[in-house]
Write a structure and sequence with these properties.
about 240 residues; mainly beta; eight-stranded antiparallel β-barrel; 1 helix; elongated
């Protein structure tokens, strides 16, 4: 009986002690700890450029690869802080890329496939409304996590030409997309106003459709729906932001 009484007393004291503890995980959302204040503006964005050139290159089963191409993109964004650590704004983006294949040959067992004089040019315009929420890390006012929710759409165009023994064949495509996405990230102030940002795509829901015309004669269409909730390492972005 005495042992049971001791166990009960220890359990009660432990419960009261746990209730009295204060857990500080390093987050400060109070008005005095605002990372960005109400009424301020954020202007920023990111840009990317890459190009490639292959000459008589081989990769796995593909041989004699001779290609050239480039890819460029720019994505400006601005937000107005409607409250401490919360902002509304717009994000626009433009992407453009080319791929030219002079020759490439696939050999597998006794089967050989080749591509010659293939060229594609694509570009995409998009605009989205954004909502940003910041979670300051500690009290330094220099580091913060953020989550950016995007809702918008895009218009894309692409042209594909291929030279064959019977002549040049061409395909024209026009695509449309509506999307909802979530991009979390981290912001670090380099000066009092200039910040470096790193973000990555996590969630995306989209519906897209495409109209296609081949050789200005045949027409086709395609539509698709996609939903994902995973870290997309291909969407990692690094950019700069200026806070006014």
């Amino acid at each position: 009986m005495r042992k049971l009484l001791v166990i009960i007393i220890v359990a009660v004291l432990g419960t009261l002690s746990a209730r009295g503890q204060h857990y500080d995980r390093g987050y400060d959302n109070s008005a005095s700890g605002a990372f960005v204040k109400k009424g301020s503006w954020m202007l920023g964005g990111n840009a990317m450029y890459s190009q490639h050139s292959n000459k008589d290159f081989s990769f796995l089963l593909v041989e004699d690869i001779n290609t050239t191409g480039y890819h460029v993109s720019a994505s400006p964004v601005f937000c107005y802080m409607i409250a401490d650590n919360m902002g509304l704004g717009l994000r626009a983006s433009y992407k453009r890329g080319t791929l030219g294949v002079d020759s490439a040959q696939l050999s597998a067992m006794d089967v050989t496939l080749s591509v010659d004089d293939y060229f594609t040019l694509s570009q995409e315009y998009s605009v989205a409304g954004v909502f940003r929420g910041y979670i300051p890390l500690g009290n330094s006012k220099r580091f913060s996590m953020f989550a950016e929710m995007q809702l918008g759409g895009s218009l894309g165009q692409s042209k594909i030409t291929n030279k064959t023994a019977t002549g040049v064949k061409g395909t024209w495509e026009q695509s449309y997309k509506v999307m909802l996405g979530l991009n979390p990230g981290v912001t670090a102030f380099l000066t009092n106003h200039l910040a470096l940002e790193l973000n990555v795509g996590v969630m995306g829901i989209s519906y897209s459709w495409m109209d296609q015309k081949h050789n200005q004669v045949y027409s086709g269409s395609r539509d698709s729906t996609s939903a994902s909730f995973m870290v997309n390492f291909l969407s990692i972005g690094l950019g700069l932001a200026y806070y006014l």
